[in-house]
Specification:
4 domains; six-stranded antiparallel beta barrel; 10 helices; 26 strands; Pdz3 Domain; Thrombin, subunit H; 23% helix
Length: 475
C-alpha cells in the first residue's frame, strides 16, 4: 500500500469516528431529555381504593385537615412551693402555679363537637380550644371513655370546618396516611407515612381497655395526641393516641384509634350519655401455633370458641364449642384485638354474621349481640336521672375555702336524701374532693364521671371532722 492509500484510509477512519461521536452525543442528548421528562412527571401512589390514583403530594388533604384540627390546652392542677400537702388544714403556703397540658383535637361537627383523647383532658380543671384561625374558646367535657381513650368536648361555636369520618375497615397495609396535630406546641404540624399494621394491641389501656390500633410510621410526638390521622382524601381514619418509644419522643411507630370506634363512642356519648358495649356471649381463646397444637386443630389464626355465656344468644345461633371464628360480617378476624375492635363499633341488639371454620368446613351464623348482662337493653341516663340517684345538692368550694384547706377543688354536699350517697355513708357537710382520682369542681363533673363509669366509683371525701376517707359509690 502506497502512502496515498494509507492517507485516504486514515481520513475515512477519522470521518467515521467523528460521525459516530455525533450520533452517540445526539442519543445521549435525547436520553437526558427523556430522563428530565420522567423526573418532572408526577409520581402516583395507589390508595386503598382500587384503581384510584392519588397525587404525589398531600397538599389538598393537608390543607383541608389543618382547619379541622384544634389545639387543646388543659389546666390540670397546680404545684405548690410552700409547706404542707393537698389535704393539709393549715400552714403557710405560697401562691400555686397551674400545670398546663397540651394536646390536639378534631372538629367532627359544624356546631362545635370535638373529639380528642381521654388522657389529654383527664384531671383537667379547665379546658381551652384554639382553632387554626387562632380563635380560642372555652370547652366543656360532654363525655369520655377511658376504655378506648376517647373523649368528647363541646365549644360554643357554629359553622366550623368539620372533618369527614371515613370507614376505617377499608384501610389497607401500605396505604399513605397523614398525621395532623400540635407536637411540642408546634401548631398545625403535618407529617406523612404509611399504614404499617392494623388491629394492633400494645397493652396501653390495661386489661379492660379496647385496643385495635392503626399502626403507622407517620411522625407523631407529645402534643399530637387527639389529633387526626387522615387518608389522602383528607377523611378521618383515626385519632392519634400513642407512640412506641424509649425516650418519650417518636422512634418509628405511632398508633391511632380507628375512626369506626371513634364514631361509635361519640354517638353513644351524645345520645345515651355513656358508651354501649356489645358482647357475643362466648368464651374464647386466641390462636397461635402453641394453642393449635394443644387443641389439636390445624388453624393458627382466629378465635377459638371454648364455651358460651350463661345468657345471650350465641349458644342458640348454631355456633359450637371448637369452632374457629375467622370473620365478623366483612371483617377478617385473626386476633382478639380484631374481634374486640370490631365489636367496639357495635351496640347491644345489633346482629352480626359470624364466619367460622367448623371441623374444617366454612359456616356462617347470625348472632344478636348483648350487653354485659346478656340482654339487648341500652343503658341511658338523663341529667336528672343522675342527680335523682345521688339525691343531694353540691355547692362548689369558694377560693378561700380551697386555700384554707389546701385543695384544688371540691364540692360541699347538702340536703342528702335517700339515694346513692346516703347509702355509701356520705352525709350533709361532707366535701367530695375527687372521684376516680379526678377533681370535682361542681355537680356536672360528678355527673360526667358517673355516666362514663360502668361500675362503682371511688370518692375521696373530707368528713365533718376534717378526716380524709374513701367511699365506694355504686350506681
Amino acid at each position: 500500500m502506497n502512502y496515498k492509500n494509507v492517507f485516504i484510509v486514515i481520513i475515512i477512519s477519522i470521518l467515521s469516528s467523528f460521525a459516530t461521536v455525533l450520533v452517540v452525543s445526539e442519543k445521549d442528548s435525547d436520553s437526558a431529555l427523556v430522563s428530565r421528562n420522567i423526573k418532572e412527571a408526577p409520581v402516583s401512589f395507589v390508595s386503598s381504593n382500587y384503581g384510584k390514583v392519588s397525587p404525589s403530594n398531600f397538599s389538598k388533604a393537608a390543607e383541608s385537615t389543618v382547619n379541622s384540627v384544634v389545639h387543646v390546652t388543659s389546666i390540670i392542677g397546680s404545684t405548690r412551693s410552700g409547706a404542707g400537702n393537698d389535704f393539709s388544714w393549715g400552714g403557710s403556703r405560697q401562691k400555686s402555679q397551674p400545670i398546663v397540658g397540651s394536646g390536639s383535637g378534631v372538629i367532627i361537627t359544624k356546631d362545635g363537637y370535638i373529639v380528642t383523647n381521654n388522657h389529654v383532658i383527664d384531671k383537667a380543671e379547665s379546658l381551652e380550644v384554639t382553632l387554626n384561625n387562632q380563635r380560642t374558646y372555652k370547652a366543656v367535657i360532654i363525655g369520655k371513655d377511658p376504655k378506648t381513650d376517647i373523649a368528647l368536648l363541646k365549644i360554643d361555636a357554629d359553622d366550623l370546618p368539620s372533618i369527614i369520618l371515613s370507614n376505617s375497615d377499608n384501610i389497607r397495609l401500605g396505604e399513605w396516611v397523614i398525621a395532623v396535630g400540635n407536637p411540642f406546641n408546634l401548631t398545625s404540624t403535618v407529617t406523612a407515612g404509611i399504614v404499617s399494621a392494623i388491629g394492633r394491641d400494645i397493652h396501653l389501656l390495661g386489661k379492660s381497655g379496647i385496643e385495635s390500633f392503626i399502626q403507622t410510621d407517620a411522625v407523631v410526638n407529645p402534643g399530637n395526641s387527639g389529633g387526626a390521622l387522615v387518608n389522602t382524601d383528607g377523611d378521618l381514619i383515626g385519632i392519634n393516641t400513642a407512640i412506641s418509644t424509649h425516650t418519650g419522643s417518636f422512634e418509628g411507630y405511632s398508633f391511632a384509634v380507628p375512626s369506626n370506634i371513634v364514631k361509635k363512642v361519640v354517638e353513644d356519648l351524645i345520645e345515651y350519655g355513656q358508651v354501649q358495649r356489645a358482647y357475643l356471649g362466648i368464651n374464647i381463646q386466641e390462636l397461635n401455633s402453641e394453642a393449635a397444637n394443644r387443641l389439636d386443630i390445624s388453624e393458627t389464626e382466629g378465635i377459638y370458641i371454648s364455651g358460651f355465656s350463661e345468657s345471650g344468644f350465641a349458644s342458640e345461633s348454631g355456633l359450637d364449642i371448637g369452632d374457629v371464628i375467622n370473620r365478623l360480617d366483612n371483617k377478617k378476624i385473626k386476633t382478639f384485638a380484631d374481634l374486640r375492635g370490631y365489636l367496639a363499633s357495635k351496640r347491644p341488639g345489633d346482629i352480626v354474621k359470624v364466619g367460622v371454620l367448623s371441623d374444617g368446613n366454612k359456616e356462617e351464623h347470625e348472632v344478636k349481640l348483648t350487653n354485659s348482662f346478656g340482654t339487648t337493653e341500652l343503658n341511658k341516663f338523663e341529667n336528672k336521672d343522675v342527680f335523682e340517684m345521688l339525691n343531694a345538692k353540691f355547692v362548689p368550694l369558694s377560693d378561700s375555702q380551697k386555700y384554707r384547706i389546701g385543695v384544688k377543688a371540691g364540692v360541699v354536699v347538702k340536703d342528702v336524701g335517700e339515694g346513692l350517697l346516703q347509702k355509701a355513708g356520705i352525709g350533709d357537710g361532707y366535701i367530695i374532693l375527687r372521684v376516680q382520682n379526678q377533681w370535682i369542681r361542681n355537680g356536672e363533673d360528678l355527673k360526667a364521671i358517673l355516666l362514663s363509669s360502668e361500675k362503682a366509683v371511688l370518692m375521696e371525701v373530707v368528713d365533718r371532722n376534717g378526716y380524709v376517707d374513701y367511699y365506694a359509690v355504686k350506681k
